[in-house]
């Protein structure tokens, strides 16, 4: 049995006259933290949006846990086993932290609309189980004490943690984090790194887009570098940092 969680082959995407992605290939193994970096406009977010169903690729294919995977609709992506966070936080601001995580958990429930309408015993038992799991996940990311606070009242760093808890609530095969360190101070970045490392130790798989090269190189098992929509390097952080194309295109610019 393959230990690949995500196998990406030959993904290309064009927007009008712009070739955003060209023949992108990537293999992410179970339990890895896999980094995706590159300059602004390199195609990182486009690639993220393709694998999570927001965009349809023009060519190429995916396998998720050894099975063909077609990310055509966002809700089906979550059911298939990929959960994502966004660069711009997308929480339900007026819901509590607990309710936000419970919403994520409903992807894995089965009592259906009629059960909710008639409040069947199965529905009630499922709701209790969902709440219990949501509280566990809030504790896991370190904000159990904030369960009953509205999401909008949480600090920026705690809102990021809440997003990750909500993503984990879907029991994903792969959790995709889109620039989770953006806007964080130094202390929050340390806490984020500790949380991602904890997720890896629990044999979960993380795909990380991040501008903070120091964070990526210190945390990731393998890294892919995009430039103008093309893969210019793949390998361990040490291998990538030594790659002349990477130094020229990204690390050597001093911009990040």
Automatic annotation (TrEMBL):
GO molecular function: ATP binding; ATP hydrolysis activity; L-isoleucine transmembrane transporter activity; L-phenylalanine transmembrane transporter activity; L-valine transmembrane transporter activity
Keywords, ordered alphabetically: ATP-binding, Cell membrane, Membrane, Nucleotide-binding, Transport
UniProt cross-references to InterPro entries, sorted A to Z: AAA+_ATPase (IPR003593), ABC_AA/LPS_Transport (IPR051120), ABC_transporter-like_ATP-bd (IPR003439), ABC_transporter-like_CS (IPR017871), BCA_ABC_TP_C (IPR032823), P-loop_NTPase (IPR027417)
Residue ranges of every copy of the ABC transporter domain listed in the record: 6-253
Entry-linked SUPFAM superfamilies: P-loop containing nucleoside triphosphate hydrolases
An annotated GO cellular component: plasma membrane
Pfam families noted in UniProt: ABC_tran, BCA_ABC_TP_C
SMART domains in the cross-refs: AAA
Source domain of life: Bacteria
GO biological process terms held by the UniProt record: D-alanine transmembrane transport; L-alanine transport; L-isoleucine import across plasma membrane; L-valine import across plasma membrane
UniProt xrefs under PANTHER family: AMINO ACID ABC TRANSPORTER ATP-BINDING PROTEIN, CONSERVED COMPONENT OF ABC TRANSPORTER FOR NATURAL AMINO ACIDS-RELATED
Name of this chain's protein: ABC transporter ATP-binding protein
Species the sequence originates in: Limnohabitans curvus
